[in-house]
Amino acid sequence: MKISELQAKDVVNIADGRKLGQIYDLDLDLRRGVIHAIVVPGESKWFGFVSSGHEWVIPWRQIVKIGSDVILVRLEESVERRGYYLPDEAAVD
């Protein structure tokens, strides 16, 4: 799968059914060739020009399913839109 194909999919949290947005970046370990997390931008405040400054940094292990037009993730209510990362040993090979 190409990165551009991932970026075209909506990211949805199955814990609450909320659409988080679309992927705009990946957190990669180039040395090991693994993806640590997907990054989804925060909401735009005014015609897409001003963002909230927060982003979802969703660990790869939180991805439940990658479908043809949606990526399902499981984020619990306690997770806030401030971003977080996996430690190196938890990366997906």
Please name the defining characteristics of this protein:
93 residues; 9 strands; 3-stranded antiparallel beta sheet; SH3 type barrels; 4-stranded mixed beta sheet; Sporulation protein, YlmC/YmxH family; 5% helix; 1 helix; 42% strand; mainly beta; PRC_barrel-like_sf; Spore_YlmC/YmxH
Report what the structure shows.
- This is Sporulation protein, YlmC/YmxH family.
- Residues 2-74 form the PRC-barrel domain.
- Pfam families: PRC (PF05239).
- It comes from Laceyella tengchongensis.
- The chain is built from 1 helix and 9 strands; from the N terminus they run H-E-E-E-E-E-E-E-E-E.
- With 93 residues, it is mainly beta.
- It has a single domain (3-86), classed as PRC-barrel domain (SH3 type barrels, Roll).
- The strands form 3 sheets. A 4-stranded mixed sheet has the order 2-1-9-8, with no helix packed on it. Strands 3-4-7 form a 3-stranded antiparallel sheet, with no helix packed on it.
- The longest helix has 5 residues, at 3-7.
What is the overall shape?
globular
Q: Which class of secondary structure composition applies to the elements?
A: mainly beta
Distance between the termini: 15 Å
In CATH's first tier, which class applies? Mainly Beta
- Nearest-integer average pLDDT: 79
Instruction: Give the number of domains.
Output: 1
According to CATH, the homologous superfamily is PRC-barrel domain
Write the layout of secondary structure elements.
Blueprint: H1 3-7, E1 10-13, E2 19-22, E3 25-29, E4 34-41, E5 44-46, E6 50-51, E7 55-59, E8 63-66, E9 70-73
Parallel strand pairs: 1-9
Antiparallel strand pairs: 1-2, 3-4, 4-7, 5-6, 8-9
